[in-house]
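Quick log. Single chain, no ligands specified.
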Amino acid sequence: MTEPKKLILNLFEMNTVSHITHGLWTLPGNNRHRYGELSYWTELAEILEDGGFDGVFLADVVGAYDTFRGGPETAVREGLQIPSNDPMLVVPAMAAVTRRLGFGMTFSTSYEPPFAFARRMSTLDQLTDGRIGWNVVTSYLPNAARNFGLADEIPHDRRYEIADEFLDVVYKLWEGSWDDDAVRVDREGAIYADPAKVRYIDHVGENFRVAGPHLCAPSPQRTPVLFQATGSPAGTAFAGRHAEVVFTGGRTAEDFRRNADRMRNAATENGRSPDDIRFIVQAGVVVGRTEAEAAEKWRVFRERTSLDGILAHASVPLDLPAFPGEITVREAAIRAGLDPEKVGLPLDATVAETLEGFRASREDRYFVAGTPTVVADEICRWLDEDGIDGINLRQYHSFETARDFAELVVPELRRRGRIRDPEPATLRERLFGRGPTLPETHVARRYHDGANLDRPLPPLRFTAPV
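-> predicted structure:
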């Protein structure tokens, strides 16, 4: 009998007030306003560890959402990812109160140099005993570019070119600068590390010049688990070369499978196995002990959701709520003095229809509300029929969402053999069931123990295989 496929279970979080559940920080008992307190993060980590979660996935942005209504005022009023603190700095606190929980941490390759980042990630991998992952992003907000001295955001595919070289540099540092056995800790000979096994990387590229050597000795995973969120052709090609866990989705199972197949094909083009990539989706789960309890929770969440917050987060350039619901988006754009073709919305839909579409946008294939049995049935269907590997659980209420899932859904999933063994392991071992370091087929391994440091990676082909 085939063993049931196990769920990768992450909580989706951010070091901010309002992450992706717009307006719900105002709910009674919600702890979102405590995001700046260390105790928020340690309490959350203990809930997740005890509740059978594999990890917490920490989002981040380095700019404000300032397109909607022509400025950041809506985002500031809503607490929409501003104020927002650095996700890296809460990881050691959470790691200190847990032994198994993994951490996926977001960092952009577009604006900061790779050398200092590589050092911080190696430090985190050491402090967490190898439980760290990196969500590789290229940053899309125009305000982020202006925060780092640019007039406007870097063009999309150009950002991926920079990211490809950024990863080339950090691979050389993580995989190639120190040999596996460089650290000797020889007290009698007074040799901590063998200098013959530590080297410069001398990277000289279009975007970066980094001499090395890496300042950190090899960490448990060397290279952290590599996460990526993508769907574009350039992003898909990039994932095929680099990503181990891809955060993707779709409004239907067919959408998801199409996205996943493209990335598996891209992995094959890079000499990797299609099984070298795991796929996780953002999922909304509202669970109650009865159907009535779950329905009431969802009614309250939906009623309290902020439409302004949704529109600001989506960077909608048109102030839709300011127009009559019966007119078309095209007419609203014309009245606002905007080019209808540039608002990025269905022009023939009415304003009311468009706003309702935004309200309902999270009630897609990967949403379920019901009893623990109903929720577990649906998650098993996502695993077995759609082929997902895991979920990033959307947190409507902190900490009620995580506690409800841990107390009501996890026992049912565990009974069905869908939850992983709780024994401590590195994040890569936990997700893939193999060793703590990257497999030999991954491009980063070309630099292992100092090989190929003088041979740059070939340019990435940005037309992904179909």
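The first helix runs from residue 38 to 50.
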